[in-house]
Amino acid sequence: xxxxxxxxxxxxxxxxxxxxxxxxxxxxxxxxxxxxxxxxxxxxxxxxxxxxxxxxxxxxxxxxxxxxxxxxxxxxxxxxxxxxxxxxxxxxxxxxxxxxxxxxxxxxxxxxxxxxxxxxxxxxxxxxxxxxxxxxxxxxxxxxxxxxxxxxxxxxxxxxxxxxxxxxxxxxxxxxxxxxxxxxxxxxxxxxxxxxxxxxx
Length: 201
Known about the structure:
- The chain contains 7 helices and 8 strands.
- It is α/β, with parallel strands linked by helices.
- The chain folds into 2 domains: 4-92, 3-Layer(aba) Sandwich (Glutaredoxin), CATH 3.40.30; 107-200, Glutaredoxin, CATH 3.40.30.10.
- An 8-stranded mixed β-sheet has the order 2-1-3-4-6-5-7-8.
- Helix 3 (86-100) packs parallel to helix 5 (133-146).
């Protein structure tokens, strides 16, 4: 699936990894699941610090669903669908982000996140052709990485049209927080943070 040029790029990028990363996949026998498994298998073959495991008990209601963890630590980072198109680069960046424990948030935001003591679920609806979606994904994953109480699930609308319809997704990126607050379009971290606290009351 990956060209030799892409493989060379990824090998170079993965030289920055610090902690071992475990990518987990919840799958079925569908063509979509097989495509995801093949893609992940190619990615993990490029660096010994990236491991891959198929699981059946992931905290994700959608299939296929991917999680990116360090060994023994689940950060609540999920991707439902195939991370391709515009989402491929941010998926690779997330592997590096998890390995290095480096999230893209200001110190002020991280301080606010330390006050959260209730579960927060962020859903980010995307399409692989959306130019504004990768930054929204990176922000959501950064929130999840920075707080043990936050889970972020990215959902590919083309892979799960029924879910996109349920949440009335007419434009992407669309962020849904605890199935209450909805944010459409590119937003900065302060606005997302404000919606999180408004939902928590």
